[in-house]
Amino acid sequence: MRVLITGANGQLGTAIRKESQNFESLNFYYTDIEETDISSKESVGSAFEKYSPNIVVNCAAYTAVDRAEDEREKAYTLNAQAPANLAEQCKTKNIKLIHISTDYVFDGKGNTPYMETDKVNPLSVYGQSKLKGEELAMAYGNTMVIRTSWLYSAYGNNFMKTILKYGNERPELRVVFDQTGTPTLANDLAIAILQIVQKTDKLFVPEIFHFSNQGVCSWYDFAYEIITQAGLSTKIVPITTNEYPTKAIRPQYSVLNKQKITNLLEMEIPHWRQSLVKCLQEYLR
Question: Disulfide engineering: 149 pairs with which of 38, 98, 99, 103, CB 3.0-4.6 Å?
């Protein structure tokens, strides 16, 4: 099995690279925008010729949520057109595609964990571009979409590392408490993806699935736990979304129902606190 990872230098791509060491039956090839621009059909075609993959995992995305409000075209190019390019060429070559999406496809006005079949209504350009990418890619019939939320890891830029940075510099941090979701350790998502790849014939289903860690918290709760587990004395002050205005509207509630992927993989997904402890041990050692 030949596996091509696009967007390989990002958080999830890096996590897959680390966790893939436990999947020795698979051959992995990693590419990022410097080598393969997936918004270009020609570049995608060249990568497929070079690596001859059986399955592609697309980890590439435009994730600058606020900047996307001003850079709509860039967001749509990478989040919508690029996965469509991948899916189209995968279809012609009988290659399977796993594409990663986001909780931002929902408006966050619900109060029970979102199922894959629930109505989508993204409030931001980022969310709208990611939804369009889902739709365009899935139209080819060979794409499995995995939506995730609040991704963090020991690599790249993310909320955990930002909180640790400022927690070491400031006596107090103000963090919103009225946005609720679930942090997802990139390594846990990587393991779920790799299990699907390893047993493609059985587990690859061209539908939408949700994956995050278990449990529910606010950004305030997440920040408080990060500071506490890291042994820092920084005070975390809860504030409302209105007190921390951003250009893009965030979903207030974006907890994902994971039952569908849990049933598929027959696996237990770790609680977010458990995974945070594991991540901090790796990052701070």
Answer: 103
